[in-house]
Design brief:
0% strand
């Protein structure tokens, strides 16, 4: 019998198993299926959380947005990709939320100062609130909500101007009264009273929460944001509030 040096695998026709069948049976194509499924689930969760964070930003709720975005980032890390994330990071949203709290405190202080008649301080408070609100919206990528604080700052600015004018008129009235010039004293006292009433009216309108100070948060005028100080009322009298011409008065007594 000739020597058989053939080392090939021999098919056993008895069970119908061939070489290819045996080789394929040794593979485990589904070995990572559990890992893939977990990654897909994490990616879907990250996508859903990102959508919720985006809605919170649209609503102006940056604290909730920061929490949701943080969860989305955790899920994205488990998925092994950040492709499903967009917009501001959780760190940026936390900064925006902190700025919102600061702006709210400024607005509360503005109302307190306005109610006490300190319109200069109230104007500064409102300007700070406007600037900080604008910064928060910019950092979060949200809608500009600084318009209301802008209006409040404008009203408090006019209140401050009228208050200063009232004080000057009253000082002049007192001076005329001291010199015995009753007519001019009465004229300036009347002017002071009128200016004070105007100041108090503007001050009330500028208080946070007053309906007259509300404005469209997406208005163009609100986009001034951090340049609030440049938009403060110019320290000059409106035409209808120009100082009374006192050329006929005896200024020597003042």
């Amino acid at each position: 019998m000739p020597e058989d040096n053939n080392s090939e695998f021999v098919v056993d026709p008895a069970d119908g198993t061939g070489v290819d069948d045996v080789y394929e049976a040794t593979l485990d194509p589904g070995g990572d299926s559990a890992t893939d499924s977990a990654a897909e689930a994490a990616a879907q969760s990250a996508t859903d959380l990102q959508a919720q964070a985006d809605q919170a930003v649209t609503d102006g709720d940056y604290a909730s947005a920061a929490d949701l975005r943080g969860q989305a980032e955790d899920q994205a890390a488990q998925a092994g990709s950040t492709d499903m994330l967009d917009g501001s990071s959780s760190a940026d949203l936390q900064t925006a939320a902190a700025d919102q709290q600061t702006a709210a405190a400024d607005e509360q202080q503005e109302s307190t100062d306005a109610a006490s008649g300190d319109y200069a301080a109230a104007q500064t408070d409102a300007q700070n609130a406007e600037s900080t609100t604008y910064d928060a919206d910019t950092t979060a990528g949200g809608t500009d909500h600084s318009g209301t604080a802008y209006d409040e700052a404008q009203n408090e600015g006019w209140a401050n101007w009228d208050q200063e004018t009232a004080d000057q008129d009253q000082a002049t009235a007192d001076s005329y009264a001291a010199s015995g010039n009753a007519d001019d004293a009465a004229m300036y006292a009347e002017d002071a009273s009128s200016e004070q009433a105007t100041a108090d009216s503007y001050g009330a309108e500028g208080q946070d929460g007053n309906a007259l100070a509300e404005t469209d948060p997406s208005s163009e005028v609100a986009a001034a944001g951090s340049d609030a100080a440049e938009d403060a009322p110019v320290e000059e009298a409106p035409a209808e509030e120009a100082p009374v011409d006192d050329t006929s008065a005896d200024d020597s007594a003042a």
